[in-house]
């Protein structure tokens, strides 16, 4: 499950999944489009769901999106979630995820909401800081 | 007015950064990534 703050970003991320892992079934979930088609696609099951928090919650409330088997969750541009008013929705979604999961959060800035989110929903996270270029021990970057 | 050329460049940079991140060997634990995109002339 990947959460993104805007439909444009959600579409871009889903496109990257489709191109880099074509064997996976992916779905992009965002508002402003008919929800019925997304519900039908979810019925068949998906490997990767990328979406904006508003539509994700809408689908959860309709019983179309079951998060109980999510293994990995990504919060992309987490600080932008706060900017566009998705803070509460993000926390509602995170509460519904299974405890046993891997969480990855991406953020350019670290406002207090991000820090509290990290404490509350991430389990002793490793911090990869590409701004200050500090590489944690045990991590290596490969650029091609 | 939107400068489409600039938008295209920004999109390519964002895609590149995400590609680089995909190449990072992720540890089997929760991760907090901090990154920002700097574009210089």
Q: Determine the mean pLDDT of chain B.
A: 58
Based on secondary structure, the structural category of chain A is alpha/beta
Helix content of chain A: 40-55%
Instruction: Supply Rg of chain A.
Output: 15 Å
Low-confidence stretches of chain A: none
Percent in helix of chain B: 40-55%
Oligomeric state of the chains in view: heterodimer
Radius of gyration of chain B, whole Å: 14 Å
Biggest interchain interface, per-side counts: A-B, 32 and 22 residues
- What is the straight-line distance between the termini of chain A? 27 Å
Q: What share of residues are in beta strands of chain A?
A: 15-25%
Q: Give the overall form of chain A.
A: globular
What's the helix-strand series of chain B? HE
Question: Structural class given helices, strands, pairing of chain B?
Answer: mainly alpha
Please count the beta strands of chain A (DSSP E, at least 2 residues each): 6
End-to-end C-alpha gap of chain B:
20 Å
**Number of helical segments of chain B?**
1
- Approximate strand percentage of chain B: 5-15%
Reported for the largest beta sheet of chain B, the result is: none
Question: How would you sum up this structure in a few lines?
Answer:
The complex is a heterodimer of chains A (144) and B (41). Chain A has 144 residues and is an alpha/beta fold.
Spell out the blueprint of helices and strands:
The complex is a heterodimer of chains A (144) and B (41).
Chain A: E1 2-3, H1 7-20, E2 26-29, H2 35-44, E3 48-51, H3 53-61, E4 72-75, H4 78-83, H5 87-96, E5 102-107, H6 112-121, E6 126-129
Parallel strand pairs in A: 1-3, 1-4, 2-3, 4-5
Helix pairs in contact in A: 3-5
Chain B: H1 4-22, E1 31-34
């Amino acid at each position: 499950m990947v959460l993104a703050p805007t439909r444009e970003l959600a579409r871009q991320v889903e496109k990257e999944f489709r191109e880099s892992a074509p064997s996976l079934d992916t779905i992009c979930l965002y508002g402003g489009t008919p929800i019925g088609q997304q519900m039908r696609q979810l019925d068949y099951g998906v490997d990767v769901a990328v979406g904006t928090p508003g539509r994700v919650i809408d689908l959860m409330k309709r019983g179309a999106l079951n998060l109980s088997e999510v293994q990995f969750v990504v919060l992309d541009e987490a600080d932008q979630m706060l900017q566009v008013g998705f803070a509460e929705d993000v926390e509602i979604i995170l509460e519904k995820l299974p405890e046993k999961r891997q969480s990855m959060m991406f953020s350019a800035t670290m406002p207090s909401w991000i820090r509290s989110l990290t404490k509350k929903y991430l389990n002793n996270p490793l911090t990869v800081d590409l701004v200050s270029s500090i590489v944690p021990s045990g991590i290596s970057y490969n650029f091609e | 007015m939107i400068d489409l050329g600039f938008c295209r460049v920004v999109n390519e940079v964002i895609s590149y950064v995400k590609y680089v991140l995909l190449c990072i060997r992720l540890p089997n634990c929760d991760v907090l990534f901090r990154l920002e995109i700097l574009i210089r002339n």
